[in-house]
Amino acid sequence: MTTGEPGQPRTDRSPWNWLLVLPIVLPLLTFLFNADEPRLFGFPLFYWLQLAFIVVGVVSTTIVYRMTK
Question: Which residues cross the membrane (predicted)?
């Protein structure tokens, strides 16, 4: 695969790719969700924080895709 330039190999070494580490490391930090309170709409912290991790993953993947396109 090439970029728009003929003869130039594609490179995936963009600093934006480091943003993809965030959705991998964030759920591994157990001290963030090791509690029952606060509750959001009756759901304990663990459940709504897991949904927040999904949103962080989607947003960071979208940003990296747009910036490295």
Answer: 16-33, 45-65
Count CB atoms within 10 A of the CB of residue 47.
Answer: 14
Distance CA 56, CA 32 (A): 14
DSSP 39: -
Label residue 27 exposed, middle or buried (CB < 10 Å: 0-12, 13-18, 19+): middle
Residue 62: in which H helix or E strand, if any? helix 45-68
pLDDT digits (tens, 9 = 90+) for 45-54: 899 999 999 9
Residues 10-46 pLDDT 10s: 677 889 999 999 999 999 999 988 888 898 888 888 9
Structure token pair of residue 50: 């897991």
Q: Which residues pair with 43 in a beta bridge?
A: 40
CA–CA separation, 68 vs 14, rounded Å?
Answer: 7
